[in-house]
Amino acid sequence: DVKVTQSSRYLVKRTGEKVFLECVQDMDHENMFWYRQDPGLGLRLIYFSYDVKMKEKGDIPEGYSVSREKKERFSLILESASTNQTSMYLCASSAGGTSYNEQFFGPGTRLTVL
Amino acid sequence: ELKVEQNPLFLSMQEGKNYTIYCNYSTTSDRLYWYRQDPGKSLESLFVLLSNGAVKQEGRLMASLDTKARLSTLHITAAVHDLSATYFCAVVRGNAGNMLTFGGGTRLMVKP
Known about the structure:
Number of helices of chain B: 0
Number of strands of chain B: 11
Mean pLDDT of chain B: 92
Distance between the termini of chain A: 37 Å
Order of helices and strands of chain B: EEEEEEEEEEE
Low-confidence stretches of chain A: none
Low-confidence stretches of chain B: none
Largest interface: A-B, 27 and 22 residues
Number of strands of chain A: 11
Structural class of chain A: mainly beta
Mean pLDDT of chain A: 93
Radius of gyration of chain B: 13 Å
Largest sheet of chain A: 7 strands, mixed
Strand content of chain A: over 45%
Shape of chain B: globular
Largest sheet of chain B: 6 strands, mixed
Oligomer: heterodimer
């Protein structure tokens, strides 16, 4: 079974803090994704990575950056957290290739920025 | 740009009733997923629909796809409380093989 884990289920930070959200997958997947989930908006793609040290902006990258130093780990960084970044963050991974492969999701991190 | 609209966003229904959730998308795609999310949990894949006219059923849920109308439906038959969850449709982006665009989700509450 694919397993995608996220470092925290709940996180509370203060405005202006630097925040790291970590995601690890154990299936040797090439692709990894970060989404944020807000009521009524579904999941929106922040960034994705198709290989180590490679990244692409998603639909809402502003205010976020990412890091992928190892294949199994993908980090989402909020350089200076703001209250409008309070949300649920979901990580996903999938196998690589030119055609679509199903994404598998982690349990999510609920981030509150005060 | 692919847009996916799901409705209704919230649905409260009695046990035993039938209802349909709709998912419209704006550009051509060759694959559509339905996911279920329980409160505080991650997304669980329910169905993948690959071609026009595809129909898949699992228990009281049945999903269908009409690629010409760019419409998928998730039909609930004789709802039970255990089906209470949020349901998302997600469409594979045609020109970016590894990315999905999600609908806004339908929060379903089934009352005894």
